[in-house]
Amino acid sequence: MLPYQNPQLSIEERVEDLMNRMSVEEKVRQITCAMIMPNMDNDKLDLKNSMGSMTIFGSQDLIKDLTNAQEYVIANSPHGIPALIHGEALSGPVAMPGANLFPAPIGLGASFEPELVSKMSEGTRKQMYAYGIRHALSPVSDLARDFRWGRANEGYGGDPTLTSVMTVAFVKGLQGEDIKEGIACTAKHFLGYSQSESGMNMHKSMASARDLRENFAKPFEAAIRLADLKCVMNCYSEVDGEPVCSNERILTDMLRDELDFKGVVVADYNSIRHLVMDFNTAENLFEAGKRCLEAGLDVELPTRMGYSDEMIEAVEKGEMDVALVDRALRRFLTLKFELGLFEDPYPHPELVAAAMDNTENNKNSLEAAIKSMTLMKNDGILPVRDKSKKILLVGPTGNNLRLMYGNYTYIAMLEMLVSFSTMGATQPGVEFEEDDDKKSAFDDLANMLSSINFSDKSIIDDTIRKLYPGATTILDGLREVFDSVEFVEGCDYKGDDASHIAEAVEAAKKADIVFMAVGAKNGLGATASSGEAVDCTSLDLMGMQEELMREVFKANPNMVILHTDGRPLCSEWAYKNVPAIIEGWLPSTYGGKAFAEVISGRANPAGRTPVDVPRSVGHLPVYHYQNNGSSAVYDRGLLKTGYIDSDSSTLAPFGYGLSYTTFEYGNLSVEKDSDGKLNLSVTIKNVGDLDGDEVVQLYGKDLLASLIRPRQELIGFRRVALKAGESKKVCFTFKPDQMSFQNVKGKWILEKGDFKFFVGGHSDDVRAEAIYTHEITEYIDHATRSFFAETCEELV
User: Fold this and answer.
1) What is each CA distance from 350 to 179, 339, 343, 700, in whole angstroms?
2) Among candidates 761, 524, 122, 280, which has minimal Cα distance to 288?
3) Domain at 663-795: CATH architecture
4) So what CATH class is 374-606?
5) How far apart are CA 475 and CA 473, in angstroms?
6) SS3 for 734-764, per residue?
7) Are 627 and 711 in contact (CB under 8 A)?
8) 22-353 maps to which CATH number?
9) How far is CA 102 from CA 16, 155, 573, in A?
10) Where are the domains of the chain?
């Protein structure tokens, strides 16, 4: 046994011994990746002489294909080094049919319950580990402020504190207590990706240096310091004229030196190529690769372009310092040894059955869908408890499963793969028994290929039902509850066909209540209306949906809007006129049932907006923590800030959501303990007749500072379940340095003076407030500062 093969030695010893034995070619190939396609001869793939990473697409038998590929890599590596296999995992494992599936992250953000994120990632961890996929390109820790950007659904919302809490919960759940049985997480996209020019994907970041450091970097730093985050992915953007993938100030000076990241930086797919093809900052792929490696980009994904044979040759000729390769390789090998990959490189078929038993995962997914439901408006029309009411469901999302899912789910990827497939009956999935319903699901898809039309939004709904037998459309959910439910689609989610609106109008005249189901399709390509590289110039409903909504409302104003999308409904008309609005985000498999539970009052809604809801695209960006002087309307004699043609306020503030019951706040107190922490407590009482949840939110404001500070900052939050008449004391514990910032010299500082803290049900809801006075100005060790308040609750 060679030293690097000895698990009794330290990881550092094993890494150094292995590196000393490796050739330049083996070293460079270890920091690259290959995409594995099923039914392709391994000898024809780029796997010989070592391969550091792999990913697989379109596998009919995932266990077999992953095992074969890994065996081939190890056998053809001079030192038997296994590849690290990666996949997506935002809402559950993307590569596996029938796997754990949860609402999109923005919906999980709306739940304001990080425990749900932990439950999802724990279930995901078991499934990915069973399949030998030990590296997740998740979570997305970007901040959603501009909803033109189609990827807003992939993150947890627009607030850095909320996103930090959820990111930490995700990473802890997926990496697990023992990383040898866990999945290495990759937080992405570092840094400022979502604040892009024109709201378009891959465009330059418009965030300032301070905004990048204090807000966009916060979720990443929290995951690094609190959850031992193993990987970070660069974003496609440029910052101050430099592509992030070749930006040493971002990837090394900030990420490693300042945020103390010790793990692996992986490339977003094809990032290095962009230096040549898009940015025009490198003459060729070798030059682009060298510059990215110098900046701190460790591993190229998904194929070898910049970290290529030309790089191998340059190092061997002494034209490039091997130390650059060694630095990246050392980090990547360290991760492989931490994961125990040398001792445990293969899938575990014996664990698959238990891991893929979604009994508990499905319960948690339904719970998450229900808890993400956000009641935005209610003039008393909800809940509908009379089962005999004549219900009309109208709209393109009303009887559709596909539109309930986000882009980075197995469902959306399956649709994409089938649309590109030329493999006949060979479809993405696992090998099924002949009598398995899931096998027939893929057979159904195979039969569609000759005439497939992906403008049909229901093309894979039958497949979804076979993979997830409990899946419910909104129509399914309503029919489980109410005796009389009619459905008229009215129009599609895109396009200009208004020919069926009249039918919906006539049906509305006969109904007691109309449920208007509108939204978008989150995915890839021309048939999607939001998603990656699917950006918009308008926040209005697409196609004829707005006209459908207004015309049906004229016929029957007893209307409830049910909205599903990766961004909120931004219709000033709807908020002004329609009696009730429910935001369902992208609720996934059990979205229809979740809507029905809330509509009928079986569940009391308590979802909260994880973003501020703008009135129109012209109001963007909006977020509650904008700087003093930048976020409100002021009168200065003849001069008045704001818009002359529109109210400058939001349609709904951050953290907003209604309930079927009401809550009172009282007995707010704040005190400093012997450890220097602030302990703030408040009593919450459910004064209504129904049980319900309240999301108690704590905000802080620096009342006087040497630099312009945010008008308020979210300190922490806690979702509290209260029975009718019940009271609980909710406690928040945090260090005052959570209010610190970088001064003009770049030093973290907490200035003396008064700080106001207030609690309420959303960011504009001041139920109780208190003043804390910090006595001295002090420099802060930013590495140990608070990122968010710890919370607890107790019965009163």
Assistant:
1) 20, 20, 17, 51
2) 280
3) Sandwich (2.60)
4) alpha beta
5) 5
6) ECHHHHCEECCCCCEEECCEEEEEEEECCCC
7) yes
8) 3.20.20.300
9) 41, 14, 31
10) 22-353, 374-606, 663-795
Region of 665 please: left (phi>0), alpha (psi -120 to 50) or beta.
Answer: beta
Q: Can you tell me the distance from the alpha carbon of 446 to that of 440, in angstroms, rounded to the nearest whole number?
A: 10
> Residue 695's closest CA among 675, 722, 723?
722
Residue 717 tokens read as: 């939050």
**Residue where the block lists tokens 């809007």:** 561
Q: How confident is the model at residue 635 (pLDDT cuts 50, 70, 90)?
A: low
Q: Find the mean pLDDT for residues 374-385.
A: 98
What are the phi and psi torsion angles at 218 (to 5°)? -60, -50
* DSSP 8-state secondary structure symbol assigned to residue 263: S
Read off the tokens for 241.
Answer: 């004229």
Q: Could you tell me which of 306, 295, 236 has the C-alpha nearest to residue 273?
A: 306
> Which residue bears the tokens 């190529």?
273
Q: Structure tokens of 534? A: 């699917």
Q: Of 499, 566, 561, 490, which Cα lies nearest the Cα of 528?
A: 566
Sign of CA dihedral 624, 627, 628, 631: negative
How far apart are the C-alpha atoms of 768 and 758, rounded to whole Å?
6
**Rounded Cα distance, 22 and 24, in Å:** 7
For residue 627, the SS3 value is strand
Q: What is the pLDDT of residue 643?
A: 85
Cα–Cα–Cα angle for 226, 227, 229, rounded to 5 degrees = 120
Q: What pLDDT was estimated at residue 644?
A: 82
**Residues near 188 by beta carbon (within 8 Å), at least 6 away in sequence:** 137, 138, 139, 140, 141, 142, 232, 233, 235, 268
Q: Is the pLDDT of residue 237 over 50?
A: yes
Amino acid in the structure at residue 577: N
> In this predicted model, what pLDDT tens digit does every residue of 579-628 receive, in sequence order?
999 999 999 999 999 999 999 999 999 999 999 999 999 999 999 999 99
- b/e string for 122-154 if b means 16 or more Cβ within 10 A? bbbbbbbbbbbbbbbbbbbbbbbbbbbbbbbbb
Task: Name the token pair of 430.
Answer: 């696992």
CA distances (Å), origin 301, targets 132, 293, 439, 695, 705: 18, 13, 32, 40, 44
Question: Locate tokens 């609106």: which residue?
Answer: 501
pTM for the complete prediction?
0.94
